[in-house]
Design a protein that fits this description.
Length: 589
């Protein structure tokens, strides 16, 4: 074999081997392409690759596929964005937020789904190196605005260009919950404020009630003391001829009378004073007392009277109302030391349940007539306003006020079924408003009293005095005997009944109201009337009017208030005598 032949054979073998290698490589390439395709389609769970170190298993299930499923099923929206905002991918949750199918969202600019005013904020975050979180508004299909939280994070080491991944959270439910929570918080705060106001009003009402009971009891005991002092001085005065001593006694008796007026103010606050309510028109009353008001405040203060047209009638004691207005005018004067203006105005007012509650809950809804005194004085702080109706509370200097003026007004208005309110600004002035209950107009009818043509020359034969206080019982005995009446006395109701049953000469019962032994003066009068219907009755007490809870006055009893003088006692007995004579004549006629 020649060299040429050997060379040909060698070439032919080499070509054959190369062709085999090419076919093998083609087969491997095809196999790799198939593997890549099934990997892309997610049809395989793992890839087994052989190599010098043996077979290597790459698990697709534990890598890419679960994460893709997670992204698709998550409730938050997920997007993949290119640097210019082009949506490369979005899940179904994001597509639902914008109201379009996912296939129509991918390939769009995300800016077209963003509220115009939020686009600049989005693009700034999109170009941020580290990403971040913002709150923006998506515009869903139908121009529905959806508030969302957008969190963007760029993918690192991306050679093909900047890619940003985003998570979008719908904030509508969170905002609704926040709004509901805020509304609930506001309602709770309102309820707390209402409760605190109600508790404060209740505390104030309870305090005023306790103070009222205390002052009422104080007035009762004080009246008894004044009765003993004044009555005995009255007896002494009648037996002294020295003019100098008589003058001194008159001064003491005058002080006793002032003390009596002081207790009346306490009783007014306690709402147990004697009232004579009538159907009155405040518009008719104010012109009558306008001159008194002007004199009370002085020439340095301008007084303006504003009367409402068509003012309703109200039910109140005109004398007590006049006193209340004068008291308020004097208080206004003291608050305007440098001069000012006092406006007295009237108005009709209808209070519903809410308005009545705002006034403290101490007044029932309904129709009221109001009289308001407004001054331009120094005003009061809230701390002063809360205490201004308390007896003896005053901001005036010692000796310039007893602190009972407003408490008397308070008691009168509350006892009349009304209310009093105060609004004040420090340095600007104060407005005090009285609410008095509306009533129908009732024309006053003069009562015609039938009296005996020839009254007897002698009065009662004998008076039974019922008083548990030994000093007062002795004093009443001295006063009645000084008036010429025969007397006997008892310390309890049971003792009085026993005495009356034994002595038929008794034709007048003079009894105190509050007594020990389980029976008060009115109950004693009723019991005696059952045995002696012809007996006359005269009642006395330091508590006038409604007296105490559970102590109801007898309408047929004449009442004389402690402290009383001998002259007042004589006049009261004369009234009882005239009433008994009138009753006898009416029965006989």
């Amino acid at each position: 074999m020649t060299d040429r032949q050997n060379l040909t054979d060698r070439s032919t073998g080499l070509v054959g081997r190369n062709l085999d290698d090419v076919e093998e490589l083609r087969a491997r390439l095809f196999e790799a392409e198939e593997a890549l395709e099934v990997i892309r389609s997610g049809e395989v769970d793992a890839v087994v690759v052989g190599g010098p170190l043996g077979q290597q298993i790459y698990s697709i299930t534990n890598a890419d596929r679960p994460y893709r499923l997670l992204v698709e099923q998550m409730k938050e929206g997920a997007v993949t964005l290119l640097s210019a905002g082009l949506i490369a991918y979005c899940n179904n949750s994001f597509a639902l937020l914008v109201g379009k199918p996912a296939g129509q969202v991918s390939g769009c600019q995300i800016q077209q789904f963003i509220l115009r005013s939020d686009v600049v904020l989005l693009e700034s975050l999109l170009n941020s190196i580290n990403g971040g979180r913002i709150v923006i508004t998506l515009i869903a299909d139908g121009q529905i605005e959806v508030p969302v939280s957008l969190s963007l994070s760029p993918l690192p080491d991306n050679a093909e260009g900047r890619i940003v991944c985003g998570v979008v959270t719908d904030l509508r439910q969170l905002r609704q919950s926040t709004k509901e929570l805020a509304d609930a918080s506001i309602r709770l705060a309102d309820q707390i404020a209402v409760r605190e106001r109600a508790e404060a009003l209740l505390h104030q009402a309870q305090k005023m009630e306790v103070v009222g009971q205390l002052t009422g009891g104080l007035a009762h005991d004080f009246n008894n003391l004044l009765m003993i002092i004044g009555g005995n001085l009255d007896l002494i005065r009648k037996r002294i001829s020295d003019d100098h001593i008589v003058q001194r006694l008159d001064q003491v008796l005058s002080a006793v009378q002032r003390g009596g007026k002081l207790t009346q103010q306490l009783l007014a606050f306690s709402r147990i004073q004697t009232l004579s309510p009538q159907s009155i028109s405040i518009n008719d009353l104010l012109p009558e007392i306008e001159m008194l008001v002007r004199r009370a405040v002085g020439s340095g203060i301008e007084v303006q009277i504003d009367l409402a047209q068509g003012l309703w009638f109200c039910r109140a004691d005109p004398n007590q109302l006049e006193s209340a207005i004068l008291n308020l005018a004097i208080n206004a004067r003291d608050a305007m030391t440098g001069g000012g203006r006092l406006i007295v105005s009237t108005a009709n007012m209808v209070l519903d349940a809410k308005a009545a509650a705002e006034l403290g809950g101490e007044i029932a809804p309904g129709r009221f007539v109001t009289v308001t005194l407004t001054d331009t004085g120094t005003g009061m702080t809230q701390d002063v306003i809360t205490r201004v109706f308390e007896p003896f509370f005053t901001t005036k200097e010692v000796g310039k006020g007893s602190g009972l003026g407003l408490s008397q007004v308070y008691g009168f208005v509350r006892q009349s079924g009304g209310h009093i309110s105060i609004k004040s600004d420090v340095g600007k002035g104060t407005a005090v408003r009285l609410y008095l209950p509306w009533t129908e107009r009732i024309e006053a009818v003069a009562a015609k009293m039938v009296v005996a043509a020839k009254p007897p020359k002698v009065g009662f034969r004998k008076v039974l005095i019922v008083e548990d206080n030994d000093e007062l019982r002795d004093l009443a005995t001295q006063l009645l005997q000084g008036l010429g009446y025969a007397t006997c006395s008892a310390g309890t109701g049971a003792e009085a009944i026993s005495t009356l049953m034994k002595d038929t000469q008794i034709d007048l019962l003079f009894t105190d109201v509050l007594m020990p032994g389980g029976i008060n003066g009115f109950e004693l009068a009723d019991e005696i009337r059952r045995h002696r219907p012809d007996i006359a009755l005269l009642v006395t007490s330091g508590f006038p009017g409604s007296f105490l809870p559970g102590v109801q006055p007898n309408g047929s009893c004449d009442i004389i208030r402690k402290p009383y003088t001998e002259a007042e006692l004589a006049a009261a007995i004369a009234r009882v005598w005239m009433a008994s004579v009138t009753e006898t004549e009416c029965v006989s006629g």
